[in-house]
Amino acid sequence: MMLKSMVLKYHQIQWTEKAISGGKLMIDVAYFGWHIHSEIHDLCTETSCPVSSGDFVISHSQVLPGYTPPGSYTLKMDIMDKDKQQLSCISFDFSIGFGSPVAAI
């Protein structure tokens, strides 16, 4: 039996006081409280750079393989500017059920 992969999509409206010309998006994932995955992305691949002061949108998609176990997950996302100053920290929980085609956030 082949299991289908799932796509976790995330869109978040952020606000910045000053213009942003680059940085990093750092993602950490925990499964039932245990750290299981980390990744780092260029901020300019997740939003359009340069970012002017005011509102902007961070969008991220992640393909979860078909063998992703069901259960409770926590995703933590840190957004850092090019000078390694934290711009934002976001954390949210989601769960994957047995046979669930999408994650419940």
Automatic annotation (TrEMBL):
One GO BP: sterol transport
Superkingdom, natural source: Eukaryota
Ranges of residues in domain MD-2-related lipid-recognition: 9-94
Entry's family note: Belongs to the NPC2 family.
Gene Ontology MF annotations: sterol binding
Keyword set includes Transport: yes
Keyword Transport in record: yes
Protein name as annotated: MD-2-related lipid-recognition domain-containing protein
Record's keyword terms, sorted: Lipid transport, Signal, Transport
Quaternary structure and partners: Monomer.
Function of the protein: Catalyzes the intermembrane transfer of phosphatidylglycerol and phosphatidylinositol.
